[in-house]
Specification:
- The structure holds two protein chains of two kinds.
- Chain A is mainly beta.
- Chain A is about 5% helix and about 35% strand.
- By secondary structure, chain B is mostly beta strands.
- Chain B contains five helices and 13 strands.
- In chain B, the strands form two sheets. A nine-stranded mixed β-barrel of chain B has the order 2-4-5-6-7-8-11-12-13. In chain B, strands 9-10 form a two-stranded antiparallel ribbon.
- In chain B, strand 12 and strand 13 form a beta hairpin.
- The radius of gyration of chain B is 18 Å and the shape is globular.
- The two termini of chain B are about 35 Å apart.
- The relative contact order of chain B is 0.23.
- The chains are: A mainly beta, B mainly beta.
- At the A-B interface, helix 1 and helix 2 of A face helix 5 of B.
Chain lengths: ~140, ~260
Amino acid sequence: MPRLRAFSLLPAVLVIALATATMPVLAHHSFAVFFDQEKTVTVKGKVTEFMFRNPHGVIRVEVTNPDGKKEEWRAETNSPSVLKRRGWSPRSLTVGEVITLEGWPARDGSNYMRMRKVTRENGEVVGKPFEFHED
Amino acid sequence: MHRAARRIGPSIVLSTMATLALATAGCSGEAPNAGRPDLSGFWELDARVPPDPELMALIAPNTAVIDDTGAVELPLGDFGGLEVKPEALEAALAWNPEDDMTVSNACRRPSIVYATQGPFPMEIHQAEELIVFKMEYYDMVRIVFMDGRPHPGPEAPHSKTGFSTGRWEGSTLVVETTHLEPATITNNGLEHSDQVRVIERFRLSEDGNTLLSTMEFEDPQVLENRGARFIAWRKRPGEYVYPYDCDPTFAINYSEQTE
């Protein structure tokens, strides 16, 4: 059985907090099995890849910790079909731009999350964020 | 996260699935959809619509109404009130969700039993003797024959969309589907067999902007009782479904995490 990689160094920008009632929409696999809907995680980093494909998109970012060490975080998005109706497109993110990613963390503590909200450096929110029981 | 399943007692039952199977359609020579409500349009699922009392009253006895429409998920081992036969229960409890996250399985489609309640829209195209459901989820297309033809024999192919026939009961469309391939019921390990039989009822709200429906299913190989869901959609004129084009390499994301 594959196990997710545990991380030993928390990036300075990482925040995990108890969320109020939040849960993304379901698409394909079980959300609850893989992600903790009671917590949120936030990282800031440089986009290295943006895949806009069903059943889920993927955003990869390179996060630099205060000690200069870099690590990769990945965010799984809702179905791009759903994202399109919320203002997203395959060109919404550009490799190299800095974004803040907020989402529900993987249950095993790896650098993986389910995306809830993406904010550009200038404060612009990309598309419409996900809230409780939204489609 | 999910609310408790509701059970429908026999006192409120107005018809049964057995009697539905005996009904006929298209016998008058008139196009079966002539003069009936037009369900055509783009429909977006809305899980906030309360169950429609008129449709809920028609659900057969001994039925668990699963309350997981839309984003809601049942936890592991919770099948929403469905009474699962021992062999199927054993398989369901042995389910490993990580097995789904492989290139082979990442794009394995659900059947209409689960897919219909998912948070994806659909288009309905209603012709004189056919109604077509074009679902965004996994690019599934359902054809509902309204010409009174019988369902094929058990040797006919099974698929995730099955074989569907429909008829009108007043202003309510009743669709019966058989020949479904085994697939998930609740997205947490429980699968129906290829013997599952599905009855759906669709009707428009008074203003025509909401499509109300129930989906009932029975599967004697898997279930001691019956299951049902209430599902509703809002009309969104001018919109259309997008291609789904599932890319199974998404699953590599999960295998990468073992590195």
